[in-house]
Specification:
Elements: E1 2-6, H1 14-19, E2 26-30, H2 36-56, E3 61-71, E4 76-84, H3 89-116, H4 133-141, H5 151-159, H6 168-182, E5 188-201, E6 204-217, E7 227-228, H7 232-237, H8 241-247, E8 248-260, H9 273-292
Antiparallel strand pairs: 1-2, 3-4, 3-8, 4-7, 5-6, 5-8
Helix pairs in contact: 2-3, 2-9, 3-6, 3-9, 6-9
Length: 297
């Protein structure tokens, strides 16, 4: 079988190259271990993670501004959060490359498991990732995803499904990869988790505030509230609120992190790009692949 191995290990055995975590220039040589291509996919995925970390290193500290914004359609005055710098769209492209390499490594694994079981793989074979046992049964019985895989191996694959506690990373891989593959790039957003803000009116400082352990999302409405613009009763009772908020300027520095843009969740800490990608790669490399590696020795 012919596959790519790192150039650094061209004169070493394919076995040593397979177990290396390095990645450099590649060349074609003959190898005969079934997991060579799979491990090289994961080596490439690690390269993408490193590229992502390089981009994220430029977005750790930034400026947070909160500016008044009149929404005439809703009749509300809100304060909109804006954070700089923002993650480049290229980040989402590199994330997509990472997801492809990891997901395809799993499908390559099924291909090799069929061959190991003395079967002939087909285009139906792939690693099923499902959110419920019934979905897995359908993937196996109707779509024949594991046709040619031994019953014992099928049971192991079932134990790795994301509906079992501890396997959530596989579910995240599936959701993110399907979005990138079939719909659109996985968008990211920048979040301030600690901010030192200065409030001023007409250029005069009014208040300084440290907001810690609370997420400020780029583009979100500060506090999630709006002030009614066309409510006579509110205006009579609080005549100074609208003029004061309209003139207010809020600026400051903040520590930042980048997360997948999940608008419906309360906290984006669990959706950080860095930890999400690392968790996915570690799960596939250290739990999935290592589980099946002894079968090929």
């Amino acid at each position: 079988m012919c596959c790519i191995v790192p150039f650094l290990f061209a004169e070493e055995s394919a076995e040593k190259a397979r177990k290396s975590d390095g990645y450099l220039l590649c060349l074609w040589i003959m190898t005969d271990h079934p997991l060579d291509g799979i491990n090289l996919k994961l080596i490439r995925a690690q390269k993408h993670v490193d590229d992502v970390m390089g981009m994220l290193s430029l977005i750790k500290v930034g400026e947070c501004c909160i500016t008044p914004e009149r929404n005439e359609n809703l009749g509300l005055l809100v304060q909109r959060i804006s954070i700089q710098p923002k993650p480049p769209l290229e980040l989402s492209v590199v994330i997509g490359d990472f997801l492809f390499d990891v997901r395809s490594a799993l499908d390559h694994l099924i291909w090799q498991l069929v061959i190991h079981n003395r079967g002939s793989p087909t285009s139906r074979n792939m690693f099923p990732i499902t959110s419920a046992p019934a979905q897995l049964n359908a993937a196996v019985a109707k779509r024949r995803r594991l046709e040619g895989v031994s019953p014992k191996t099928c049971a192991i694959i079932e134990s790795l499904q994301p509906y079992h506690t501890g396997n959530e990373a596989l579910g995240r891989l599936d959701a993110l990869h399907n979005a990138d593959k079939h719909r659109t790039l996985n968008l990211t957003t920048v979040v301030a988790d600690n901010a030192s803000l200065s409030f001023s009116t007409s250029g005069h400082p009014v208040l300084s505030m440290l907001i810690g352990n609370e997420e400020l999302r780029d583009g979100a409405v500060f506090g999630g509230i709006g002030i009614p613009l066309n409510d006579p009763e509110f205006t009579r009772e609080f005549p100074e609120v609208i003029p004061r908020v309209s003139e207010a300027e809020v600026r400051g520095e903040a520590s930042l992190f980048v997360a997948f843009d999940e608008a419906e969740v309360d906290s984006l800490e669990d959706f950080r790009v860095d930890s999400t990608l690392q968790n996915i790669l570690e799960f596939v490399r250290n739990k999935v692949i290592l589980t099946f590696e002894p079968l090929f020795d």
